[in-house]
Amino acid sequence: MASSLTCAGVVWAFLSFLCAAASCVGFFMPYWLLGSQLEKSVSFGTFRRCSYPVRDESRQMTVMVEQCGRYASFQAIPSAEWRICTVVTGLGCGLLLLVALTALMGCCVSELISRTVGRVAGGIQFLGGKWMCGEGMGLSR
Questions:
Q1: How far apart, in Å, are the Cα atoms of 129 and each of 14, 24, 28, 53, 99?
Q2: Measured in Å, how far apart are the chain's first and last C-alpha atoms?
């Protein structure tokens, strides 16, 4: 099994994969914000939520649904900022995962990654990381 990466490149590939996997798990988990509402523990992320209030028309009151789920549609995400965050974070995760998987393939295939490709991949990772932090869209403070 030939490799087109140096020892530093192999370490970069595995660390890139671990970071991309952690970013994707964080993106899909609904634990970005934790709190309580109607004396129940609630949490939500960009497109998932756990323990959320709904209006029960038969009893004419608000009740808590104690389960996790995603929003029914993109427009059901509570605000435009959260929708932008969902898109930007998803794109960042996609870029990071693409580069990480390409780097891992470089561990197994000779002449897959050249010095130029490595530099471009590093730039893409930087861009993906900036998007993950919200700086790519001017969302950071």
A1: 16, 12, 16, 34, 12
A2: 47
Question: What CA–CA distance (Å, rounded) separates 52 from 50?
Answer: 6
Q: Give the domain range for residue 45.
A: 8-133
pLDDT of 136 above 50: no
Of 22-26, 116-120, 121-125, give the range with the top mean pLDDT: 22-26
Per-residue pLDDT tens over the stretch 33-54: 778 877 788 887 777 778 877 7
Domain-embedded: residue 68: yes
Half-sphere exposure at residue 121, Cβ-oriented, CA atoms within 13 angstroms: 23
Is 139 domain-assigned?
no
**One-letter amino acid of 80:** A
Torsion, CA 54, CA 55, CA 57, CA 60, rounded to 10: 130
Contacts of 23 (CB under 8 A, 6+ apart): 92, 93, 96, 132
Q: Is the pTM of this model over 0.85?
A: no
Residue 64 exposed, middle or buried by CB count within 10 Å (0-12, 13-18, 19+): middle
